[in-house]
């Protein structure tokens, strides 16, 4: 399909004359000279046909009145053009500490898919792209964090003897804004400046997180302390110990320094287990049930290979895990992969535990497709939601992306794990191939269902820090921070998928989570933004080497400095209640608040729960009044302090309106 | 006894309400059933037949387990009385006083299937064979599904109950056989108090009042008091001031523009049953022109017409689509359910139900645009003038007039547009199972409630009534007790009620309307009808309101810049210049109505929506729905409430409700505290809400333990066992899709290289 479109452009030269705009190969261009290798680029263009893009561009050129006089601010250099005399205050670009303006282009047209053409100024800083137009009644602003950009594409069209440049900014966050502007040889290309700062790692520049100099009153790096978290779970205990064997990341370079393993395991045996597990990711404890002592254990696949290799130590190791839970003499292994894929892996020296070698072990495949399938699914989803929505076939279109089906699979898998622990009182081991993608998704979802602590604002941060960040989900590879190789097959939206699952559970249990939708969206935005160090790099080891904790700011510093923005006003502590979300498509919904948020029609006019917030405000106000009166009364009555004590206590229980517990 | 049942129904039956069982039989039946268990019979309720040791399958269980009990068929319902001790009444807060969870009002029965060994066969009336199926599956119009096994009952009993159910549920009957009549004869309902109640629109005052309220300037017609003008017209109605006496009598009221609502600018919405325009016959055309002129004279000599028969789905389309749609929720087999789960989204699109909802809302938005933005009069028409006209006119009023978003306002709206407005409830629901009315059966009123639900979902705080209220209202259509839903129009209602009255001299039979909610629910349960987050209108004195108006107008005008208004070529036609010419244009345009026209209309409506959306939202001003794909949703509460597998235990909207109620309770408590201290904080509208406390009571009982089906299903058999789809199905599905990508290793590098 796409190839045909591409051919169409090549043949349509008579109308559109895209010149070769490929100066130094840096900004990836959609050169239409017909070279075959470039056609690959169009193949995964998420915004549809190239022809349509050319047409848009020509239309933009014709309809616009771009002045042929070049703009007088020739400040393409690093100095911020802050000559206030010429610029209206509205025109100023808001900057975060450490952010500097790198290039400004005037008379740029933003081809807004929702409201039509807007002409304004495009600024590139080392953190974001900022477009502002003052031609409408209210200023029109659009900005994109450079970190959210997947690739930049340019196109040139000749019309009326002038070259018009088109620039498409393909983003990871489900949008692809397009700009058009006149080419001007006297100025450095904004695209080049943009590309340089969008992909700092490909240009020997630091990630912006290392330049960001904001001071927050709360230090987010203190949120996660593994010892404290394990202590909360009741660890160490007689069966489990917090081991420092990986303190220098020598045993396993993708595991955290501290891991919880069975206390009875001998060092020599452990070594054998280490070499029997893919990437040395041995089975370690993620979570322990406070009552039954059943555990969630995570690992990578065993290196069984086509010849059905055995490892006595590994077999005994699993037996020890089983024995640590007196309630059950079984261990359930959930292999997240599709069984066919697991078999393929076996042929390639990986594999899965054989039930005949591991006594009392029950193996289940959760049949979840791999990262490539997920990447493809999200790509299709972008086509469905951006820029416009097909009303009549909306549901079928969403159906065809299979995105929600995969969400359902993940939820169903996590529900099975949680149920096994809760009702089966049986320990569970989860792995996929390497144990850092689907495994992280499943264990963290199951923990979210089982443990209400993780449903609080702080608890959820701990969950992410623990199951995802410290256990080596390859954020850098999956997201591609600062890297220009957008076609890298290592990229995959697994973390987004996980957050989507959390949103789905949140939607089914609107009162069970202390955090709100904005919190989840903020996490996803800063997954890409490179503003905070939280999601940078692939493993704890790398993060330590790069001194992330001292040189960058944590996302949680920002969040926890203004927690009220991210709290759910409906929150009720469900305490020890296990949440079983319904893994039925009937109860799943596309997260429009995230995927379709660029479409202004889908934006709510009224902040959600505004009414409730007013109510909470009223309550706080009343409480204040009552307390005041009580104080007055007690002071006038003098010694009768006991009565005031008595009446102020109920208001105390609801003192902070957002955190009431029933 | 069965022999006497044979001749029921049919138009030819003598119009008298006589039970088909003789008094002796009733007596013996009663004695018979008293020996067994029987439900508490309602006044006027008579047991026709019964069978004991019937097994009712517990729907939520794949295994063939169930409960034994007696199955009865009365003149009101099919009822199952369990042999086991009645369930703990804990969750019975929302008990319906007329029928319980194991009762199916006869007119609520949708389809009955017979289970013969492995086959499931749809049963129709009239097939009275001696053979009876071992299993009866009843699909209800409120989407419950019952499965009864007759294998354990005495053969004689089983046959009797089977034939009785088939006869009373599926075969044609006369209107007089409906339970309402025997019920009303045996109960006395006090006349509803006029004050603070739903406006019934059955008097001159009601109509005058409504016209005054909207500052309308039209003519009230009371000449049809005894239906002299036309039996199709209501007793009282309002027409444009320029309609003459002579015009009223023409074409049995067809083509007569009936006033619905006046916009504050002076323009108004009218609806009419369209006149057939035959090319060779000029007379109806000239009449129509005259009527259009009359409408145009109402305000600024402007009028736009909209023929809904042409632009919206027909009632048959609606019925067809709904029939497909409802199948997704009538689940009698868990495996089937999970299978259908895979294709859920595609099936949704295929049945088209959501699209019909969207089209109706879209049409209403277009009409709103004409009234609000262009200030032109609008005349909507369709063949009968009482189906889609009712849907669109009531939606328009809901969007424009905050009064109709209150509980009483909404009920008055339904009364005005639907009940008095002449929606043929009886034919559309086909309570009587008449063969010649099968074609006219269509859930038009439900479609309207669906549209209201969409609006309510999008703008919750603008509505005083709750989702539960709408669900209950949609159920009540199938409870044959209320005069509201039993008739085709005003004159029909009037004549039947007069004829049926046992004491003609004392006036017509006094039946309750559905608005008398105490017939079905006690006060506490009725609390769930109100929305605790309703943003009540801040009290304003009249002077403020006046000055408010022009501002309101300006607020809604479109920004002149940036948006280029495309030439309007839509369905609406300007009829201001020469009406005759326009009429011709209109008819020609029927052929010109190419698909390319429709995007233009919608793009204008789109702009109208976007301009409105750009403004801050006023819950007491204009309300427009977002119609984009994801915004039109499935009414989960109504459709999923009985399906055990999709109940979210501890979740669903009730979790929020309980939290809100709790806070409301606290606020009240605090306010009382303040009052005690003799100090009143500037009493906000949020303040005194007497209902909040009871609602809090309901919800806080066990907020964590309630399910998403609240308040309809009680979580008696509460288990924390999650519903897990079978893995077999999962693998089936995944291999189909993933293709070769699935076979790729997760990371670029091969495992081999790593080891």
Automatic annotation (TrEMBL), chain A:
Its main location: cytoplasm. GO terms for cellular component: cytoplasm; endomembrane system; membrane. Residues 1-46, 66-86, 629-662 are annotated as: Disordered. PROSITE patterns: PPASE_MYOTUBULARIN, TYR_PHOSPHATASE_1, TYR_PHOSPHATASE_2. Substrate binds at residues 345-348, 370-371, 432-438. It is an enzyme of class 3 (hydrolase). Keywords: Cytoplasm, Hydrolase, Lipid metabolism, Membrane. SUPFAM superfamilies: (Phosphotyrosine protein) phosphatases II (SSF52799), PH domain-like (SSF50729). Pfam families: GRAM, Myotub-related. It is a peripheral membrane protein. GO terms for biological process: phosphatidylinositol dephosphorylation. The active site is at residue 432. InterPro entries: GRAM, Myotubularin, Myotubularin-like_Pase_dom, PH-like_dom_sf, Prot-tyrosine_phosphatase-like, Tyr_Pase_AS, Tyr_Pase_cat, Tyr_Pase_dom. One of its GO terms (molecular function) is phosphatidylinositol-3,5-bisphosphate 3-phosphatase activity. It is found in: Cytoplasm; Endomembrane system. Belongs to the protein-tyrosine phosphatase family. Non-receptor class myotubularin subfamily. This is phosphatidylinositol-3,5-bisphosphate 3-phosphatase. It comes from Coregonus suidteri.
TrEMBL record, chain B:
It is found in: Cytoplasm, Myofibril, Sarcomere; Sarcoplasmic reticulum. SUPFAM superfamilies: (Phosphotyrosine protein) phosphatases II, PH domain-like. It comes from the Eukaryota. Keywords: Cytoplasm, Sarcoplasmic reticulum. Gene3D superfamilies: Pleckstrin-homology domain (PH domain)/Phosphotyrosine-binding domain (PTB) (2.30.29.30). InterPro entries: MTMR12-like_C, Myotubularin, Myotubularin-like_Pase_dom, PH-like_dom_sf, Prot-tyrosine_phosphatase-like. Residues 545-554 have a biased composition (Basic residues). One of its GO terms (biological process) is phosphatidylinositol dephosphorylation. Residues 539-564 are annotated as: Disordered. Pfam families: 3-PAP, Myotub-related. One of its GO terms (cellular component) is sarcoplasmic reticulum. Residues 201-639 form the Myotubularin phosphatase domain. Belongs to the protein-tyrosine phosphatase family. Non-receptor class myotubularin subfamily. PANTHER family: MYOTUBULARIN-RELATED, MYOTUBULARIN-RELATED PROTEIN 12. This is Myotubularin-related protein 12. It comes from Coregonus suidteri.
């Amino acid at each position: 399909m796409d190839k045909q479109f591409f051919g169409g452009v090549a043949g349509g030269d008579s109308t559109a004359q895209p010149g070769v705009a490929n100066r130094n190969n840096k900004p990836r261009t959609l050169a239409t000279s017909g070279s075959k290798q470039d056609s690959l680029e169009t193949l995964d263009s998420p915004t549809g046909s190239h022809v349509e893009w050319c047409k848009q561009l020509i239309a933009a050129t014709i309809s616009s009145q771009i002045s042929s006089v070049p703009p007088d601010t020739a400040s393409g250099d690093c100095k911020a053009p802050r000559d206030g005399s010429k610029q209206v205050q509205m025109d100023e670009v808001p900057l975060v500490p450490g952010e500097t303006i790198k290039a400004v282009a005037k008379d740029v047209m933003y081809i807004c898919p929702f409201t039509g053409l807007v002409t304004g100024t495009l600024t590139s800083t080392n953190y974001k792209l900022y477009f502002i137009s003052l031609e409408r009644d209210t200023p029109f602003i659009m900005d994109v964090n450079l970190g959210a950009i997947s690739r930049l594409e340019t196109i040139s069209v000749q019309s009326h003897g002038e070259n018009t440049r088109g620039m498409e900014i393909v983003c990871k966050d489900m949008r692809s804004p397009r700009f058009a502007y006149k080419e001007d040889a006297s100025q450095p290309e904004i695209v080049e400046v943009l590309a340089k700062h969008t992909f700092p790692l490909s240009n020997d520049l630091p990630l912006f997180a290392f330049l960001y100099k904001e001071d927050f009153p709360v230090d987010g790096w203190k949120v996660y302390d593994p010892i404290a978290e394990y202590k909360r779970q009741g660890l160490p205990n007689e069966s489990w110990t917090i081991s420092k064997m990986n303190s220098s990341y020598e045993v396993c370079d993708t595991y955290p320094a501290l891991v919880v393993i069975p206390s009875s395991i001998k060092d020599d045996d452990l070594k054998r287990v280490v070499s029997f597990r893919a990437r040395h990711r041995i089975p370690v404890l993620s979570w322990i049930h406070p009552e039954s002592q059943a555990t969630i254990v995570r690992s990578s696949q065993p290196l069984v290979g086509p010849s059905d290799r055995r490892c006595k130590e590994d077999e005994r190791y699993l037996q020890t895990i089983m024995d640590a839970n007196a309630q059950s003499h079984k261990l359930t292994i959930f292999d997240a992969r599709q069984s066919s894929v697991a078999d393929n892996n076996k042929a390639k020296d990986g594999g899965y535990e054989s039930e005949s070698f591991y006594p009392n072990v029950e193996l289940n495949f959760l049949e979840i497709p791999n990262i490539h399938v997920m990447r493809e699914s999200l790509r299709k989803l972008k086509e469905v939601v951006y820029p416009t929505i097909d009303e009549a076939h909306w549901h079928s279109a969403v159906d065809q992306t299979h995105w929600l089906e995969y969400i359902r699979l993940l939820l169903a898998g996590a529900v099975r794990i949680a149920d096994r622990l809760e009702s089966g009182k049986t320990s569970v081991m989860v792995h996929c191939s390497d144990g850092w993608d689907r495994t992280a998704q499943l264990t963290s979802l199951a923990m979210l269902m089982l443990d209400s602590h993780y449903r609080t604002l702080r608890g959820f941060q701990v969950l992410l820090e623990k199951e995802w960040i410290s256990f080596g989900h390859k954020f850098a590879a999956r997201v591609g921070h600062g890297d220009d190789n957008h076609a890298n097959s290592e990229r995959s939206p697994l973390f987004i998928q996980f957050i989507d699952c959390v949103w789905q559970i949140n939607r089914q249990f609107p009162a069970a989570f202390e955090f709100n939708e904005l919190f989840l969206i903020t996490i996803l935005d800063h997954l890409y933004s490179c503003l905070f160090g939280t999601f940078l790099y692939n493993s704890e080891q790398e993060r330590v080497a790069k001194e992330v904790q001292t040189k960058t700011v944590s996302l949680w510093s920002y969040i926890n400095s203004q927690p009220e923005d991210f709290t759910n006003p409906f929150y009720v502590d469900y305490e020890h209640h296990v949440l079983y979300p319904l893994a039925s498509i009937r109860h799943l919904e596309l997260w429009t608040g995230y995927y379709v948020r660029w479409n202004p029609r889908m934006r709510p006019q009224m902040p959600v729960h505004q009414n409730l917030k007013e109510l909470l405000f009223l309550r706080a106000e009343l409480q204040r009044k009552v307390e005041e009166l009580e104080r007055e009364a007690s002071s006038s009555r003098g010694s009768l302090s006991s009565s005031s004590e008595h009446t102020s206590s109920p208001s105390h229980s609801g003192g902070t309106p957002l955190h009431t517990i029933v | 006894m069965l022999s006497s049942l044979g001749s029921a129904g049919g138009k030819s039956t003598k119009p008298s309400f006589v039970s088909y069982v003789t008094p002796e039989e009733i007596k013996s039946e009663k004695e018979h059933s008293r020996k067994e268990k029987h439900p508490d019979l309602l006044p006027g309720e008579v047991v026709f037949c019964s069978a004991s040791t019937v097994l009712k399958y517990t729907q939520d269980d794949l295994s063939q387990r169930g409960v034994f009990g007696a199955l009865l068929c009365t003149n009101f319902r099919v009822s199952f009385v369990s042999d086991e001790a009645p369930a703990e009444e804990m969750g019975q807060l929302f008990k319906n006083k007329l029928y319980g969870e194991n009762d199916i009002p006869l007119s609520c029965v949708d389809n009955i299937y017979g289970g013969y060994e492995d086959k499931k066969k749809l049963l129709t009336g009239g097939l009275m064979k001696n053979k009876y199926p071992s299993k009866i599956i009843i699909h209800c119009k409120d989407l419950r599904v019952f499965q009864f096994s007759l294998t354990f009952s005495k053969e004689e009993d089983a046959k009797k109950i089977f034939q009785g159910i088939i006869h009373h549920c599926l075969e044609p009957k006369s209107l007089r056989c409906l339970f309402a009549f025997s019920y009303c004869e045996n109960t006395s309902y006090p006349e509803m108090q006029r004050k603070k109640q739903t406006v019934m629109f059955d008097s001159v005052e009601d109509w005058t009042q409504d016209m005054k309220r909207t500052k309308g300037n039209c003519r009230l017609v009371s000449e049809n008091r005894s239906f002299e003008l036309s039996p199709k017209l209501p007793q009282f109605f309002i027409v444009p001031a320029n309609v003459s006496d002579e015009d009223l009598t023409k074409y049995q009221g067809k083509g007569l523009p009936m006033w619905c609502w006046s916009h504050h600018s002076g323009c108004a919405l009218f609806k009419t049953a369209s006149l057939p325009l035959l090319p060779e016959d000029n007379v109806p055309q000239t009449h129509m022109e005259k009527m259009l002129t009359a409408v145009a004279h109402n305000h600024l000599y402007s009028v736009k017409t909209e023929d809904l028969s042409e632009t919206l789905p027909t009632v048959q389309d609606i019925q067809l689509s709904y029939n497909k749609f409802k199948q997704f929720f009538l689940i009698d087999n868990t495996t089937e359910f999970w299978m259908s789960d895979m294709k859920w989204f595609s099936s949704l699109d295929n049945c088209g139900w959501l699209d019909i909802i969207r089209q109706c809302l879209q049409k209403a938005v277009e009409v709103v645009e004409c009234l609000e933005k262009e200030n032109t009069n609008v005349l909507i028409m369709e063949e009968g003038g009482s189906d889609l006209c009712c849907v669109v006119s009531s939606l328009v009023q809901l969007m424009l007039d905050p009064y109709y978003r209150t509980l009483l306002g909404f009920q008055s709206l339904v009364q005005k547009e639907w009940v008095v407005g002449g929606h043929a409830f009886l034919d559309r629901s086909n309570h009587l199972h008449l063969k010649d009315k099968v074609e006219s059966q269509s859930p038009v009123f439900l479609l309207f409630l669906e549209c209201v639900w969409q609006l309510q979902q999008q703008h919750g705080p603008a509505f005083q009534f709750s989702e539960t209220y709408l669900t209950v209202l949609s159920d009540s259509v199938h409870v044959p007790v209320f005069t509201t839903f039993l008739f085709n129009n005003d004159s029909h209602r009037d004549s039947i009620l007069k004829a049926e009255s046992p004491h003609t001299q004392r006036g017509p039979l006094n039946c309750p309307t559905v608005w008398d909610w105490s017939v079905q629910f006690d006060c506490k349960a009725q609390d769930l009808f109100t929305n605790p987050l309703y943003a009540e209108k801040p009290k304003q004195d009249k002077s403020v309101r006046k000055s408010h108006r022009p501002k309101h107008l300006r607020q809604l005008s479109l920004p002149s810049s940036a948006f280029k208004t495309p030439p309007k070529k839509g369905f609406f036609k300007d009829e201001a210049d020469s009406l005759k010419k326009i009429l011709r244009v209109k008819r020609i345009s029927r052929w010109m109505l190419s698909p390319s026209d429709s995007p233009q209309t919608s793009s204008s409506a789109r702009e109208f929506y976007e301009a409105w959306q750009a403004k801050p939202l006023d819950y007491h001003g204009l309300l427009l729905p977002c119609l984009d794909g994801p915004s039109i949703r499935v009414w989960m509460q109504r459709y999923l409430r009985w399906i055990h597998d999709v109940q979210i235990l501890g979740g669903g909207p009730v979790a929020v409700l309980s939290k809100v109620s709790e806070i409301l309770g606290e606020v009240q408590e605090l306010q009382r505290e303040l009052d005690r201290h003799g100090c009143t904080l500037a009493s906000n509208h949020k303040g005194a809400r007497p209902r909040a406390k009871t609602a809090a009571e309901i919800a806080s009982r066990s907020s964590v333990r309630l399910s998403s089906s609240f308040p309809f299903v009680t979580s008696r058999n509460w288990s924390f066992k999650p519903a897990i789809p079978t893995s077999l199905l999962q693998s089936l599905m995944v291999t189909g899709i993933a293709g070769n990508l699935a076979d790729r290793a997760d990371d670029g590098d091969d495992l081999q290289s790593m080891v």
